[in-house]
C-alpha cells in the first residue's frame, strides 16, 4: 500500500453544481460559475474535483436521473463551457472526477421511451420488465418511492418496470451486453475529453437476477438489509472487469466505488489492485453514525475508522469523508454548530479529514464551516427523498413531530444550500432567486469574510491541505488509535519511516488532559486554538482543540 498513486494523494473537493455559483441569474449554479471560481478552488490547496452530475436531466433527483449522457444539462451550460472548465482545471493542476450514473437512467432517456413503447421494441431489454399476466412481481424495495415499491405498473405494455430509486429512475439491465457496451462507449466519450476519474454511482446494485426470486420477508426493513440483498450480485465483478478493460485501464482513469457492499471482503473485492476493477472504496459506515437527535458516541465513530483502516492497512484503498450531498453538514452532525464552538469544531473535523489515511473528500462549504439550515416546514424541502419520506411516514402513522425534527437535522437539503461566497444577497450565489434558499447565517459564514481573517476556518483549511501535500506520512503512514474507548478524545498517530506524528482532537466542550505515552514533542505543527497544549509529558486540550504534533 505504499505504492504511490496520484489518486491516493488526492484531496478531492466535491462540488454540487446546482448550488455552487450561478452566473446567469436563473438561480441554478452553472459551469461558468465553476470556471469563475477555479482560482478560489486552487487556493484551497485541493488537487481534484468531484462534480455531481451535470448531464441532461429532468431533475427528478437533481441530475441522478439522466436523459442524455452525452449532453450537458441546459441549466449548467454548454459542452464548450465544459471543455473550458476542464482545461482550466488542468491548467491549475486539478484533476476531474465525473459522476457516472449507470445503475439507472431517466425515464425520459430515449432508451426508456423506446423500451416502454412495445414488448418487441429493440430497446425492450435495456431495462427490467415484468409482464402483468405473470401476476405481481416479487417485492423489491425502492429508496425513493412513497410506498417503497420498486415496481411501477406501465399501462402501455401491461408490464411493471423496476426502479430501485424514484419512478423516474428505471434500472438499466446490465445483463444485456448491448446496453453495457453503449455505456462503455459513453464513458469513453468523456475519457477522451481528458476526464481523470469516475465515481460509479450505486454500482453495487447493477446485478439483478432476471428471474426475480422472492427475498426473505422484511429483508428491506433496514438499509443494511437492502444493500445485502440488492448489492454485489454474482456478476458485478464480471461487469467491472469488462468496464476496466474497456475504459478504465486504456484511458488511465481512476475510479471510486460508491457503496462498497456489506463486508470488508466485498469492499476489497472492488478495489484491491491486483483485481483490476476499481481503485477507491467509498463505504458508508461512517454515515451511519450520528443519525439521531440524541447525538452519537465518539467510541462508535472511532470504531468505524479503526476497523476499516485496519482491514485496509496492507492492501486496498479507502475514501475518508464526513459529508456529501446525501447527508447533513458535518459540523452540525459530528461537531458543534453552537456559536461558541462552531469555528473550533469545524477546524477540528477538517483536521481529522486531512490527517487520515485514504483519499480525502471535502464537501464544498465545509472549508468555511457551513452549517445545517433550519427548515421546520415540509413545504421548504426540495429533495425527493425528504418529500417521499414525509409521505411514507404519514402513511405509516409515524410521530410526525419527531419526524420533522429528524428531517431538520438529517435531510439532504441541509447540504445543498448555496455556497456562501460573501455577505451580499443570497450569499453572493445568484442575482436571481436561488433554487434553494441560502442559509440565513451567510453574513457570518462566508468566503470573502474568511479570506481576510487570519484565523478563519478557510485559512486553517489551507494550512491543512498544504501540510498533507508536503508530508507523505499523512497520506501513507500507518495509523494507530491511542484511545479507542475514550468518549471525548480522539488521539491517533501516523507513522512512516522514522517519522511519528500525533493528532489529538478534543471532541468535547471540556478541557482535558492526555498523556504522550513516553514520547516527547519535537514540534507543534498545527493548532486550531491559540492555547499551547504541550505540558511536559502530557497534552492539555481546550474544548474542541485540535493539534498536530511531531513526536520523538
Ligand atoms: O446515492 C446512492 C445511494 O443512496 C445508495 O448507494 C446508498 O447505498 C444508500 O443510500 C445507503 O444509504 C447515489 C447518489 O449519491 C444520490 O444522490 C442519488 O440520489 C442516488 O445515487 C440515485 O442515483
Ligand atoms: Ca445559472
Automatic annotation (TrEMBL):
<comment type="similarity">
    <text>Belongs to the glycosyl hydrolase 13 family.</text>
</comment>
<keyword id="KW-0378">Hydrolase</keyword>
<keyword id="KW-0732">Signal</keyword>
<protein>
    <submittedName>
        <fullName>Alpha-glucosidase</fullName>
    </submittedName>
</protein>
<keyword id="KW-0326">Glycosidase</keyword>
<dbReference type="InterPro" id="IPR013780">
    <property type="entry name" value="Glyco_hydro_b"/>
</dbReference>
<dbReference type="GO" id="GO:0009313">
    <property type="term" value="P:oligosaccharide catabolic process"/>
</dbReference>
<dbReference type="InterPro" id="IPR006047">
    <property type="entry name" value="GH13_cat_dom"/>
</dbReference>
<dbReference type="InterPro" id="IPR045857">
    <property type="entry name" value="O16G_dom_2"/>
</dbReference>
<dbReference type="GO" id="GO:0004556">
    <property type="term" value="F:alpha-amylase activity"/>
</dbReference>
<dbReference type="Pfam" id="PF00128">
    <property type="entry name" value="Alpha-amylase"/>
</dbReference>
<dbReference type="InterPro" id="IPR017853">
    <property type="entry name" value="GH"/>
</dbReference>
<feature type="domain" description="Glycosyl hydrolase family 13 catalytic">
    <location>
        <begin position="14"/>
        <end position="416"/>
    </location>
</feature>
